Amino acid sequence: MQMKDKTVLVTGGAGFLGSHLCERLLEQGHDVLCVDNYFTGQKRNIMHLLSNPRFEMLRHDVTFPLYVEVDEIFNLACPASPVHYQFDPVQTTKTSVHGAINMLGLAKRIKAKILQASTSEVYGDPEIHPQTEDYWGNVNPIGPRSCYDEGKRCAETLFFDYRRQHDLVIKVARIFNTYGPRMAMDDGRVVSNFIIQALKGEPITVYGKGEQTRSFCYVDDLVEGLIRLMHNTEDDFSGPMNLGNPGEFTIMELAETVVEMTGSKSKIELRPLPTDDPMQRRPDISHAKRTIDWEPAVPLHEGLKPTIEYFKKMLEE
Ligand code: NAD
Ligand code: UDP
Asked: Is 218 among the catalytic positions?
């Protein structure tokens, strides 16, 4: 599934997912314009792409209007880890909401197709399991996670209103927990935390009793899903579409797997469960299977290997 000769804008392109997406789009022969304000992204994530004449980098904050000419927009700009998005919650909401308005306005002006990186957080602490796209969610509107959850929900609303009101071609992906090389070292997400703790021989910090579950998708699978959704030829198909790995693990299982795979002597320590931490999360991906013929190919054990190698290298530097 390839489309040639497009110029593609990736906002948040210097981040974890964004940098992998830029890389894959370049491999497919596209011109890529990466836009990022480096809030959580890093130049080193895209350094290897700078010598490619088809790649261009622009430092810009999506809460301000952007005037460029492109064919497609992947809107990924937004801090994604609880530690980062709670650092400046007002800015997080602005990035989701003002960022969506600016990118949708751009898409409208230049008639570009636009994809929103939404999230499983729109389901909040879900009362149905696994989560299907028609579930409206159980979200606390006033808690510490709300800046992210409600910001992303509002962005989804804006995307669908722009479709209804302005006939924009939109795609909305609801991304479930994704991991892999180039996750930020300091982002506090569970996979990076556990691997770094295990490699350093520090205690593995399991929040609560570790009975809460998550489903972990390897980054290569996720990027493939995003590109398939964007390039789905049925322009009237907008989603929302769950993208994630349906394999479900308790956080304790993840901790034990990481300790075993790293051969670490680290002990598991229980810490308080953060407010509004969802108890279970697993995507129903039948929609993605049916519509874009997508399902993840990399099981957790396989995806953890290159991720551990990446963090090992980072710690040696
Ligand atoms: P990340 O923090 O590594 O990347 C986000 C990027 O956006 C960073 O490069 C950051 O500098 C940039 N950014 C933040 N605010 C900006 C602004 N105002 N203007 C321009 N750039 C800005 O996170 P990620 O894991 O790569 O997530 C990318 C997207 O995918 C986010 O929108 C996130 O909500 C979504 N998502 C990720 C996951 C996951 O598990 N990784 C799950 C669900 C949704
Ligand atoms: N978590 C944990 N220890 C950590 C970091 C996270 O037990 O050091 C737990 C966290 O409480 C949550 C799960 O792991 O239940 C996933 O957390 P993450 O921040 O990666 O993502 P999210 O909560 O947004 O799914």
From this structure: no
* pLDDT of the residue at 294: 97
pLDDT at 1 > cutoff 50:
no
- Kind of pairing between the strands at 248-250 and 213-215: antiparallel
Place of tokens 């409600």: 150
State the distance from the centre of ligand 2 to the C-alpha of 189, rounded, in angstroms.
Answer: 6
Per DSSP bridges, beta strands 31-36 and 178-179 are unpaired
Ligand 1 pocket residue status of 16, Cβ below 6 Å: yes
Domains: count for the chain? 1
Expressed in angstroms and rounded, the spacing between residue 152 Cα and the centre of ligand 2 is 19
| Residue 210, in any domain of the structure | no
Ligand lying nearest the CA atom of residue 40: 1
Range of the domain at 19: 7-179+218-244+283-297
Cα angle value 165/157/42 (rounded, 5°): 115
155: CATH:
3.40.50.720
Using CB distances shorter than 6 Å, the residues near ligand 2 are 81-82, 177, 188-190, 193, 205-207, 212, 214, 251, 274, 277
Residue 79 CB less than 6 A away from ligand 1:
yes
The β-bridge partners of 170 are 114
Q: State the pTM of this model.
A: 0.96
Beta bridge partners of 32: 8, 55
